[in-house]
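Entry for the shared binder. Reason: the reviewer on the internal report wants the predicted structure included alongside the sequence.
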Amino acid sequence: MKYYVTLTGLNYRFGTQPFTVGQKVKLVKEPENDFDREAIRAELPGLGKVGYVANSTHTVLGDCYSAGRIYDKIGAAATAKVKYVLANAVVCSVKAADMGQTGLPPVDPATGLPLWQRRRCHRILTEKPVTLYFV
């Protein structure tokens, strides 16, 4: 399955000039972003950061997914392909294969549980380490 995303913020850097249909764009999570916890940076080889995946109802075009909707579906980075170059935005497709196992979180092979659900805890009385699994 393909997901479509809108790249915005292009006018702060190079505009839409460096983009061509069919070009690969690297999408990188930016958790240290002070303005948006779900920011996904768009990068081009040789230029670096060229914009961001849109994450606002005002900047997401048509049926494209926002950064918030795909943030947990991609790993630390993914590759997108340019589909449309518009006056002030670029629309890209991201394959589900670039988003891990069909968008599911990584799974611990020993338990079959998502990795983020495993927590290390200590018993209060015995002080022995215990692993708890939350559902």
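Summary line for the report: Confidence is low (pLDDT under 50) at residues 116-125.
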